[in-house]
Specification:
Strands 3, 4, 5, 6 and 7 form a five-stranded mixed β-sheet that branches. The chain has about 290 residues and is an alpha+beta fold. It is built from eleven helices and seven strands. It has two domains: about 140 residues, Frizzled cysteine-rich domain (Orthogonal Bundle), CATH 1.10.2000.10; about 110 residues, no CATH class. The relative contact order is 0.10. Helices cover about 35% and strands about 15% of the residues. Helix 8 crosses helix 11. The protein starts with 10 loop residues before the first helix and ends with a helix. The chain is elongated and about 70 Å long.
Length: about 290
């Protein structure tokens, strides 16, 4: 038993005990620890329900977590509630951030997420969920307050490089519900050069009675799964663009992100009489080599 655990039976005994504590060498098991990790914290296996927070070399978490949860059952219950958000693709760093709060890595000190990481994940996921026909998850967890985290960037978990480069793209991902008009061939080609994907599509509203049932047609067979998934996920936006049969033609600009998801960043209308867009698409296979 550590000397610090002795309990005096009387005031006088207490005086004697305090003297003994000062004179007896501290046992090996009671050595002082890092000031960040007190005697009231400990490491334990990440619960099975928080499997998303496990990784090679990261099988344990430190209790209590950043939500002051001290029991495995509390972490498990919250992991189930956050499950749809943990599995979502609303932001590349959504899992990194949530796991740093829910199941902090078992290090010799607590490492909090930076405030900027919290804010960019919160903003992107809130926008992404509100733009989808069927939201990936419910409301953003009310218990997460970004202002409580350190500003950083030193001493806290910050955004990844790819995440930082894509910050504006992710936040504004669903906001292209109004198609742009091509002003000139030069401006159009310059815009094309800024995107990985330049994809002509036709969006057809299947029936006026069900305006969100949209069919996407494209001659690029390799892109059909990605554009179909985008239409399903962003049906409110696609419904505004689509028209009844034979539909409306557009040029979708964006990039492919992880797991084949299409990140649409801009949409150009392609009317039958629009010679600028037609010429731009004809020239694009050659012009993109010089971008």
């Amino acid at each position: 038993m550590c000397a610090l655990e002795a309990r005096p039976r009387s005031p006088r005994a207490g005086f004697t005990t305090l003297l003994l504590i000062a004179l007896v060498p501290t046992p090996r098991g009671c050595e002082a620890r890092s000031p960040d990790v007190s005697d009231s914290t400990w490491c334990q296996a990440v619960p099975a329900e928080a499997e998303a927070c496990r990784a090679p070399g990261r099988r344990e978490m430190r209790f209590p977590n950043l939500l002051s949860e001290r029991r495995e059952s509390q972490v498990s219950a919250r992991a189930l509630r956050w499950g749809p958000l943990l599995r979502s693709s609303c932001h590349p760093d959504v899992r990194l951030f949530l796991c740093s709060v829910l199941a902090p890595q078992c290090l010799d000190r607590f490492v909090q997420p930076c405030r900027s990481l919290c804010e960019v994940v919160r903003d992107a996921c809130t926008v992404s969920s509100s733009c989808r026909a069927v939201p990936e998850f419910g409301a953003w967890p009310s218990e997460i307050k970004c202002e409580v985290f350190p500003r950083g960037p030193e001493g806290c978990i910050s955004e990844t490089v790819n995440s930082r480069n894509r910050r504006k793209d992710v936040i504004h991902n669903c906001h292209y519900c109004r198609a742009r008009q091509a002003s000139s061939i030069g401006a159009l080609m310059q815009t094309f050069c800024g995107h990985d994907i330049v994809l002509p599509v036709r969006l057809i509203r299947l029936t006026p009675a069900v305006p969100r049932v949209i069919i996407a047609e494209t001659h690029n067979t390799s892109m059909r799964p990605a554009i179909s998934a985008w239409v399903r996920q962003h049906a409110p936006c696609a419904a505004r663009l689509a028209r009844p049969y034979p539909g409306a033609r557009f040029v979708i600009l964006g990039r492919l992100i992880k797991e084949g998801h299409l990140d649409v960043q801009s949409v150009y209308a392609w009317e039958a009489e629009d010679k600028v867009v037609a010429l731009g698409l004809a020239l694009w296979p050659w012009h993109k080599r010089s971008c």
